[in-house]
Amino acid sequence: MTGRAGPRPFGGVERATAQQVADAAGVSISAVSRTFTKHASVSPRMRARVLAAAEALGYRPNQLARSLMTGRTELVGLVSTHFANPAFMDVFDLFTRELQRRGLRPLIANLSEDGHAAAALDMMLQYNVDAVLIATSAPPEGFAASCARAGLPVVHVFGRAGTDAPVPVVTVDNVAGGRLAAQAMLARGLRRLAFLGGAPSDASSIDRAAGFAQELAGAGLQPVAVDYAGDYSHEHGRRAMHALLDAHRPDAVFCGDDILALGALDACRERSVRVPEEIGVVGFDDMKLAAWPGYSLTTIRQPMAEMVRHAIGEIAARLADPAHELRSRLFEIALVERGSL
After folding, report:
1. Vertex 17, ends 14 and 20: CA angle to 5°?
2. pLDDT exceeds cutoff 90 at 251
3. Quick check: 255 and 283 in contact, CB under 8 A?
4. Which N-terminal residues, if any, form the signal peptide (predicted)?
5. Do 299 and 309 belong together in one domain?
6. Burial of 4 (0-12, 13-18, 19+ CB in 10 A)
7. What is the DSSP letter of 326?
8. Is the CB of residue 207 less than 8 Å from the CB of residue 160?
9. What is the C-alpha separation between 277 and 260, in angstroms, rounded?
10. Structure pTM?
């Protein structure tokens, strides 16, 4: 058999090629390429002819082939450790929607298990991602710095703010969030107060506990307990709340995360402990489940949608202009009062 093979059929239909679009539009193949390349120079008239031909033929540009020519894949590594936390499913929805809106695509990596950090970075380098978004308060030690050393633009969302951060951080003042939770409890005359965090090494848990204790110290008090459930999950929160009720029976508990707080509320139901009459519970995040009538959780809100948009906006600006300096930003938190305090 002689001659070149045509486009590979799929389901009996051949994929249109750029050359076919060029022939149909009466233009060069380079004009087709420029039409589908961001910021490329092409006249409005020629663009209209190419787009009309592409629409008629059902043509879609081959992004993999284009990345070989441009050196850009439009891939952004999205890495986290919180895939088991329902709150972060909402966060990932925000990330993926905003990335796709900007013509970017996420390459997701799970850093939950020990040893996955090196493999995740290797995967992102193999796929030649254009940038990395770290979406966790507790990435493996040195991971952000390793991404930066590899020459990748990096923004850390939900990280710890500070001058020693190896990459720009988009976050909230977690210490202030802990103080705000304590203020709400003290204002109601509650005095036996406890903190329940996730992992003891998690920066956000540490900072929220610190702010909580600082505010109590100003009132001449100290927490009756500062406990760490080990993970941000409903089951960890439920079990840890049972332990707090057995050992301390506090007036109120500040949970460093909404999903912990929901587990704590369910533990109270199992013990027939009335909320908020016998014990108060405050969370952190303001995830969608917190507002459900069955929970009606009082919580500290961090504006996740705004944080995600800012982080992706910074990455998009850097990709459009390599001279753009990625900026950190500290967002404000707020108390959302519902029925659990």
Report:
1. 105
2. yes
3. yes
4. none
5. no
6. exposed
7. P
8. yes
9. 20
10. 0.80
